[in-house]
């Protein structure tokens, strides 16, 4: 099954939105005590990073507003160093960085629809 860059951008956007929804009305301390929340957020980052890593290099070069290497590195860290995830970074990235990523992806996807 062929999945194109547009579909992968949608995958990134949907997973980012879900992660932000998961932490809505939650406090930082809840990811220390709520294993399901932590695992759900991690899964979202896995999807975001995996989809990002499969966006063509050409498209990545066009979309300089997305920090591709950072997004992909976060996924790799969660996958390969799963026993050593810094929950402060996970929380901060979810609450502070994902809203900006969502805004960028929404703009990109909207522009793609106009073409």
Question: Which helices and strands appear, and what pairs or packs with what?
Answer:
Blueprint: H1 5-23, H2 30-33, H3 35-53, H4 57-62, H5 68-80, H6 87-114
Write structural notes for this entry.
The longest helix is centred in the last third of the chain and has 28 residues. Helices cover 77% and strands 0% of the residues. The chain has one domain. The protein is mostly helical. The model has no long low-confidence stretch (mean pLDDT 95).
Keywords for this structure?
6 helices; 0% strand; mainly alpha; 115 residues; single chain; globular
Number of DSSP-assigned strands = 0
Structural class based on helices, strands and sheet pairing: mainly alpha
Main beta-sheet annotation: none
Report the portion of residues in β strands. Answer: under 5%
Rg calc: 14 Å
User: Which term fits the overall shape?
Assistant: globular
What is the residue-mean pLDDT, rounded to a whole number?
95
Helix content: over 70%
Distance between the termini: 24 Å
What is the number of domains? Answer: 1
């Amino acid at each position: 099954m062929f999945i194109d860059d547009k579909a992968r951008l949608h995958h990134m956007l949907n997973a980012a939105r879900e992660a932000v929804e998961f932490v809505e009305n939650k406090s930082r301390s809840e990811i220390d005590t709520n294993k399901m929340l932590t695992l759900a957020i991690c899964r979202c980052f896995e999807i975001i990073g995996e989809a990002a890593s499969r966006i063509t290099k050409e498209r990545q070069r066009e979309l300089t507003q997305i920090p591709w290497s950072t997004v992909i590195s976060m996924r790799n860290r969660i996958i390969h160093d799963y026993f050593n995830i810094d929950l402060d970074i996970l929380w901060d990235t979810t609450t502070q960085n994902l809203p900006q990523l969502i805004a960028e992806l929404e703009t990109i996807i909207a522009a793609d629809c106009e073409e």
